[in-house]
Design goal:
about 130 residues
């Protein structure tokens, strides 16, 4: 499936990042592991290289037990879809927004205990 960039950046990315951030938190990932996802991605200038390096890093972290396999699969699934849908600056912008939002949800998630299926659910949970 190919994503529409505008729709992704204004809607889909929020749901994907919510699911990823919650999976990282509930899967026991630590702050350093989550922060390193952004650092690894930003260590390469080109979008293709940065995204490929990030995908390899996630697989490595799963292999080392730093990220649970089910969580790694969720991240890799989202990122593969982004990788196959966008190129160049669109790719870099989309991945950066996904990672940033995922990190923020990860940092916020310990306060949320009920089932969350997307960004709107997360907001509702915070309003309760």
């Amino acid at each position: 499936m190919s994503l529409n960039f505008q729709k992704f950046m204004t809607e889909i990315v929020y749901d994907y990042a919510t699911l990823a951030g919650l999976a990282l938190a509930r899967g026991g990932a630590d702050r350093t592991t989550v922060s390193n996802l952004l650092e690894v991605f930003q260590s390469e200038a080109g979008a293709l290289d940065a995204t490929s390096l990030l995908l390899a890093h996630i697989m490595r972290q799963v292999g080392r037990g730093e990220i649970r396999r089910d969580c790694g699969s969720k991240l890799l699934g989202h990122l593969s879809e982004i990788f196959n849908s966008f190129k160049g600056e669109e790719l870099k912008t989309a991945v950066l927004k996904y990672l940033t939002l995922s990190k923020w949800v990860f940092e916020a998630s310990p306060r949320v205990s009920e089932p969350i299926t997307g960004f709107k659910d997360l907001i509702r949970a915070y309003l309760r």
